[in-house]
Protein 1
Amino acid sequence: MKFQDRSQIEALAKFKSQGDLVTSLYLTTDKGRLSRKEIQLAFKNLINDARARACALSASKDRIENLTRDLDRIASFGNQKLGTWNAEGLALFAASRKGFWEALELPHGPRDRVVFDANFYVRPLASILDKYSHICVLLISRREAVWYDVTLGEIKLLDKIQSDVPSRVREGGFEGTKQKKIERHIDAHLQDHYKKAARKTFALSKRGAFDWLFIGAEENHSGDLESHLHSYLADKIKARLHARASDPPAKVLEEVLAVEAKLKKAEEEEIVQKLIAELERGGLATSGLRDTIHRLNQFEVQTLVVRHNFSRSGRICPNHRFLYLDDLKCPVDDKKTEIVKDIIDEAIETVLKRGGTVKQIEPPTRLDRYGGIGAFLKYKA
Ligand SMILES: [Zn+2]
């Protein structure tokens, strides 16, 4: 099933395991970055690691057996489907005893992980949703207007109208006042058409709120249309498209996705730029993995800014959950630290659990020159 909206997250979050542990798996299957072989290997390693962790859990034999059954089902799904899996990410949710099973195609690669918990782990789904905007596309010509909804890389026709605007043909014989009269008549029809389109756009926005409005208008008429739009909608216009009302949806989608990616990238680089400015003026910011996790251990991190897919192993204090790059013992309580596969993933979880924000930045990014990770810090009390 394709991952498409928040209702899917809510349904998973509502699932009642009634005391059982359940399994959630996330895997990046982005063929732009990884070969099929690499993806299959990553999956295998993830499952092996999860099996070892399940067996080491201090839970009843019965509960551990359930997890093992979840993992068996997940492994066989992967063996059958990964060879032809086309989405950029995979999420699996299994609760064997309850007979619950769900496989989601993700439009964006998540961080690889398997989580055992009393509830399904849905936070990566929410962060994927945040990466995408809910876009309304309005394509308008002299006689037609078409609305599309574009969300999570999918396009859906919302509505369509046709207006009876006479074409602008200049016929011989009409001169002076008569010519002007005809033009005024055509203009009135045209303005009517734009008004109708503007009203419909507002009605659609009330039915299903969208974040952005993209407009493609023929003959540079977008100004005419926009003058009729409700100010609430005028604020949502984020792009003017080349696409035309008569274009096939697939072509429209292609342009919309390219524009959306550009807008998102610009938003991300703005955050990076802000971070760099804060660093340069010696303000409330830090950068580099070592300093960032140190500040995190000090409870100072407000917003974590990290390159998407940045990953490396590290160590964690089992007692404090403090993170370290290489300390074998926690400097605070002298406890032996444990290895964690992905210290960035742990850092992200920690920030979110404490109510902070995480901004993941698509590479290439200027953040790379600052170690690929940094943070805005809290004001000290
Ligand atoms: Zn400790």
Protein 2
Amino acid sequence: MPASQRLDEWKNNLNIDYFDRQFVTPYRSTVKFCEWLEDIGAMEKKSAMNILDIGTGKGSNIYYMNQQFPFCNFLGLDINDELVMQGNAFMTEQGITNCKLEYADLYSADLQKYKDAYNGIVSYQTLSWLPEYETALKNMIALNPDWIALTSLFYDGLIDCKIEIKEFQNADDDLNVRASFYNIYSLPRIEKYFQNNGYKIFKFTPFEIDIDLPKPEHNNMQTYTQKMMDGSRLQISGPVLMNWHFIYAAKE
Ligand SMILES: C[S@@+](CC[C@H](N)C(=O)[O-])C[C@H]1O[C@@H](n2cnc3c(N)ncnc32)[C@H](O)[C@@H]1O
């Protein structure tokens, strides 16, 4: 585990709207990721699998997955107990019984209680926001799922980027700085990591967004798109090029 994971960004100053708005309109990446999981045969509409979502936030991703794969059981884990409580309240309000959330720390030994109980582990928009990937993947692999599938920032080359964003309130004020990682991980190295740990099948695809996202008025972090000459769209947030990819690693 990283010496200690900084938790400020997940406990304080949370942008709750980020979690709430996805219940109403799921992100295109969530929709496309679920379609991709079907395309590659990881999930089917009639699948009856146990799926664990790590870094679930309020559970909007499992809420969406449940609409697509209603025969599965979903458990979302998050380190923010307030989000977990609100997510469970939402599921109860909606009468949904096969989506539950629990407090859990990906880096805690307690995680082992989820071992051998899940066919698949998913994790949306989380790996790149952790200090590094090795411990996170090691701990997911230790739960012994058949497969692990993630959305995050990856690069198809032998380059890892450690990116730490600091959002300041004023040019001369170092107080109230919001810091978070936007790490970009090397796909060949991630593939090798999975292989070395018994997950021999590895698939990935870039997430090519098919809608325009307007550039915000402000210059802070918020994803927008810019059209390229060939019609594809670059995704940009503040100063970072968002290299979104979906990845899937399976034992066989
Ligand atoms: C960028 S958010 C993504 C949330 C959700 N997957 C989504 O797509 O809306 C990352 C989530 O990971 C959670 N998280 C961060 N560190 C964690 C850890 N060590 N164990 C469990 N969850 C963690 C945060 O609380 C946060 O809800």
